[in-house]
Design a protein that fits this description.
Structural class: alpha+beta
Number of helices: 10
Number of domains: 2
Radius of gyration: 23 Å
Strand content: 25-35%
Length: about 375
């Protein structure tokens, strides 16, 4: 635990936290499927984003089962969800690592547990016969539901590492092929989900998905470089240098977060003032930021050797960026309910004028401003 971390030791606060994220991920999934995402991501990329968002939602659902009753029991099993208070609002990285370890042993745990039917019957008999709250059985049931979620969701949950997947986009000609690669990580420093999209051209003799050695090397390289502290230009140039017949044409990185909420996080600056003045009711007191970084290849230069010529990408960097972002452009968005948005619009802080706002209205409908 550090000063940036907080254990949700209040059971009702933890339930409100998970309910908040259930709504946020539901809105995000709906947004990924809507025309409002046009201009940010194409149809294929939006579908990929939607899949990762569903994974985040499933992981939160599993964690909610893990901690549903654990705060009410005593002994070593008494545990609380730990979240990052500053510029995150998400569970800390170690929660995702522990969940992955639990998933690896989910089948073993389930074999040693009573069935859900048996647990329900025993709880009912104790409530009616002994007139007491069966906390220990409730805890056993929550853990069974947790391990069931891990076992059933191996391919659909969001893990600390989501290894690269390749989507063919067709041939260009001259045995040159196009692919869209995507992968994701739960960044260990920022404690937020980060999604990567790479448009790639392949001039190798064998198609990349069927070239096992080259594909495994490419995946290992990309995962090793998937660190928020590295600029896109560093990641793309390193990949371009290490693979002479793989040509990165566009690399995008999407940060899903931070999530801000007066009830759960500490924030400074305009966003703190907005949430303070909004005084929104439970469930409406939040704002979720996302940042999309994009790097595009501007042209190709050919390096000539004695017996070969190698293509190298020259990437387009934003010359007007206040700081060297290492990207062609960076766009930011904020998703928030109506009441915080009204305060934000009235205050109109300078730093948020270029931020695209997705405003959640009645029935979780999303309106776009900016």
């Amino acid at each position: 635990m550090t000063n940036d971390h907080r254990a949700l030791d209040d059971e009702f606060a933890a339930r409100r936290y998970f309910a908040k994220f259930e709504r946020i991920t539901r809105i995000l999934a709906r947004l990924a499927e809507s025309p409002e995402i046009d201009g940010v991501l194409g149809e294929a990329e939006a579908g990929i984003l939607g899949g990762y968002i569903q994974g985040v939602a499933a992981s939160f659902k599993a964690l909610s089962m893990k901690y549903l009753v654990s705060g009410r029991i005593s002994g070593p099993a008494r545990k609380h969800l730990t979240i990052d208070l500053h510029e995150s609002g998400f569970p800390i990285y170690q929660e995702l690592v522990a969940m992955a370890n639990d998933a690896a042993q989910a089948a073993q745990h389930l074999r040693g547990m009573a069935s859900a039917e048996d647990l329900r019957d025993r709880m009912l008999r104790r409530i009616l016969g002994e007139r007491e709250v069966p906390t220990d059985l409730q805890y056993a049931m929550s853990q069974r539901l947790y391990f069931e979620a891990l076992g059933a969701g191996q391919g659909s949950l969001f893990w600390a590492q989501m290894h690269p997947t390749i989507e063919p986009l067709g041939e260009i000609g001259g045995e040159r092929r196009r692919y869209l690669l995507h992968w994701a990580v739960y960044d260990s420093q920022l404690n937020v989900p980060v999604i990567y999209l790479l448009d790639l051209e392949d001039s190798g003799r064998r198609a990349l998905p069927r070239d096992e050695g080259r594909w495994e090397q490419a995946k290992a390289h990309l995962m090793a470089q998937s660190v928020a502290g590295l600029k896109l230009i560093t990641i793309a140039k390193g990949f371009d240098t290490d693979f002479d017949d793989l040509h990165p044409k566009r690399l995008r990185r999407l940060f899903l977060g931070p999530m801000y909420s007066n009830a759960f996080t500490l924030q400074s600056g305009p966003i703190r003032e907005v949430l303070d003045e909004a005084r929104a009711p439970a469930g409406e007191d939040w704002a979720l930021a996302w940042t999309l970084e994009e790097l595009e290849s501007a042209r190709v230069e050919v390096e000539k050797g004695w017996f070969s010529a190698t293509e190298r990408e020259v990437f387009d960097l934003d010359p007007l960026a206040a700081q060297n972002s290492g990207a062609s452009r960076v766009s930011r968005a904020l998703i928030l309910p109506q009441r915080p948005f009204q305060v934000l619009a009235e205050k109109d802080p300078r730093g948020f004028r270029d931020v695209r706002k997705f405003v959640v209205g009645q029935d979780d409908r999303v309106l776009v401003y900016g």
